Amino acid sequence: MHTVLNIVQLVRLSAIILIVLKVNNVVANFTVENCKSLGFNKPGPLRSTCDKFLNYDLSEIRENCLKCCSKDDDDSRRYPKAVLEVCTCKFGAYPQIQAFVKSDRPKKYKNLQIKYLRGSNPKIKLYDNENKLQDNLDIHKWNTDSIDEFFLTHLVMD
Q1: Please, which contacts does 34-40 make with residues 24 or more away whose CB atoms are closer than 8 Å?
Q2: What are phi and psi of 46, to 5 degrees?
Q3: Taking all residues of the chain, what is their mean pLDDT, rounded to a whole number?
Q4: Three-state SS annotation for 64-93
Q5: Total-model pTM
Q6: Which of 30, 45, 77, 135 could potentially form a cystine with 67 if both were Cys, beta carbons 3.0 to 4.6 Å apart?
């Protein structure tokens, strides 16, 4: 009888530990370095963007995305100014960047400046209210929609 009681207590304790570990895993957020190593910027994509990974059966990527994401209504990390640096001589290598720059999409963002720098790989520079550089993002692998969504998410909209 005493052994059965110990087994029941052990099972209960194991269940409690499992619950605590799962809760800890759900609320744990990654650091900026963790997110960058996984390919996400922090503050990263919107939560709704992370949910799109389920459409492609990418639940593991979604879980990592959720630990790096921002709430859809989070204004805490919006920047008043962004500069998209590009080189027209490299548009052939980056057709998605070219498509964004040549489209009407940049006109939606009054605080976005497109800067043409000879030899520059495509990047986004984000500035604070004092015009101090806050972040510098390499975007050579981004597609047109990702760039647009990034600006929607991270630029202050008037």
Answers
A1: 34/67, 34/68, 35/67, 35/68, 38/64, 38/68, 40/64, 40/65, 40/68, 40/69
A2: -70, 155
A3: 79
A4: HHHHHCECCCCCCCCECEEEEEECHHHCCC
A5: 0.58
A6: 30
Cβ atoms within 10 Å, residue 131: 8
Return d(Cα 70, Cα 75) in angstroms, integer. Answer: 9
Residues 145-154 as b/e (b if ≥16 CB within 10 A, e otherwise) read: eebbbbbebb
Please list, in sequence order, all residues whose beta carbon lies within 8 angstroms of the beta carbon of residue 133, skipping any fewer than 6 positions away: 125, 126, 127
86: tokens are: 């590009």
Q: What is the pLDDT of residues 124-146, one digit of tens each?
A: 999 999 999 988 999 999 999 98
